[in-house]
Amino acid sequence: MALKLIVTGGAGYVGSVCAARLIESGHEVVVVDDLSTGHADAVPDGARFVEGDAAEATASLLGEGFDGVLHFAAKSLVGESMTDPAKYWHGNVLTSIRLLDAMRDNGTPRLVFSSTAATYGEPESSPIRETAPTQPTNTYGASKLAIDHAITSYARAHGLAAVSLRYFNVAGAYGRYGERHTTETHLIPLVLQVASGDREQVQIFGDDYPTEDGTAVRDYIHVVDLADAHLLALQHAVAGEHRIYNLGNGTGFSVQQVIQTCRDVTGHPIPATLAPRRTGDPAVLVAASDRAREELGWKPERADLSGIVGDAWRFAQERRQG
Ligand code: UDP
Hints:
Elements: E1 4-8, H1 13-24, E2 28-33, E3 48-51, H2 56-62, E4 68-71, H3 78-83, H4 85-106, E5 110-116, H5 139-158, E6 161-167, E7 169-171, H6 187-196, E8 202-205, E9 217-218, E10 220-222, H7 223-236, E11 242-247, E12 253-254, H8 255-266, E13 272-275, E14 284-285, H9 290-296, H10 305-320
Parallel strand pairs: 1-2, 1-4, 2-3, 4-5, 5-6, 6-11, 7-10, 8-13, 9-14
Antiparallel strand pairs: 9-12
Helix pairs in contact: 1-7, 2-4, 4-5, 6-8, 6-10, 8-10
The chain binds uridine-5'-diphosphate (UDP).
């Protein structure tokens, strides 16, 4: 069934890929983005674009009658969330509550929300299930967790069909949609900047973690597999319920392994130097995504790390060539 949907943050990385996949599946998409971190030219072909605040602009559109909202718009820099917490409590939490109010007032039936593995903090066991304790170690994770709590209560009280997807480490690209943050903090794009010649070397944040090679381990998921989980979430959302799913491949790769994969894919030696640990970085973050597999019928199709890096590399090169 074709749905009429609002995608907040649809000019950003994950939002643009998801909006593109939604349009390809026959849905009608309006992208709302204030372009604070997104790019107007990343809004997918076929989407209507409204530039504005995720809550305000969405609130003024919802009266047109929409089947749902996919809410990607957010502040997402962990370090910044510790030095400027207000930006996260206002920009993430208050904006999302205003959005929930507008959905309640207009009777908008479905919400899919971009949550994060950062809601769990330092895990007590691995892989991480949805039942794991939520003890975020930074304000970014705390702000996303607060929104998840708000969604739970709005769903129960007002009959909203809601799904939160807790992303692990998203990477890769899809066609002309990919990762292009002005302030880049993520490992794979930073390593690829070295291969492109835009950066001299990559820093390895800590080599004394209790892991096989001493560097931190993460679960890297292809952005297209992630986007496709949103389409399934829309189909499986149940009125009055808020369901939460972890999304990852269930396999961890260390920082050293990621850098080596980037060397293999790009053919560049990619010099790496050792730097101190980044505050608040857990040693290992790997998802147990059995719940998404069982309840949504989700199955990652692009789990191979070389393929994920290969797609990110193709995207980076195409952007350099204009
Ligand atoms: N990392 C690193 N050097 C960098 C960027 C990241 O060693 O220049 C490490 C980081 O400490 C973490 C992993 O790479 O262990 C993934 O970091 P990223 O910022 O990509 O995602 P996060 O897991 O923090 O969400």
